[in-house]
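Attaching the record inline, Q. Sequence:
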Amino acid sequence: MLEPDRINRRQELGLAAFTTVVALFLLIEGGWTALTIDAVRQLTVTPAVPLSAEDVALMKNYLPAMYLVAVEGFLFGSIAVAGVVGLLLGKAWVRQMLVVASVLLALTAIVAIGMVPPTQWDTQVVLISFCGLWWWQSKKWQPI
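Structure, as predicted:
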């Protein structure tokens, strides 16, 4: 049977691994969204672009939501990376910070859902699911 300290450390490593997955997902989301923002900002109606002026205007109307999603990805991804480092170093304050950050992430995702069409809710729903799973895992893996 494992000693309580070894069980606790194993639980912290598991939580760090899960947080790493969330951090990577967020950072990738932020990066892709930043690339999309750049492409949409440069989009114009030309004969080479098979889009109407209405299509371009509609895409540009979603720029505020894209900015929110890019900031969401980079900000919360960076917080998650800091959380992983803190978990690996065994810092006591990290769990509380990650719980607060996950609540803010879920709220940000809800705001983003309100700003984008239903066809683009998938990423935000995944983030909310990640937050729910993180809350469950964090509660399950309380220090012994």
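Residues 4-140 form a domain with the Four Helix Bundle (Hemerythrin (Met), subunit A) fold (CATH 1.20.120). The longest helix spans residues 4-42.

More tomorrow.
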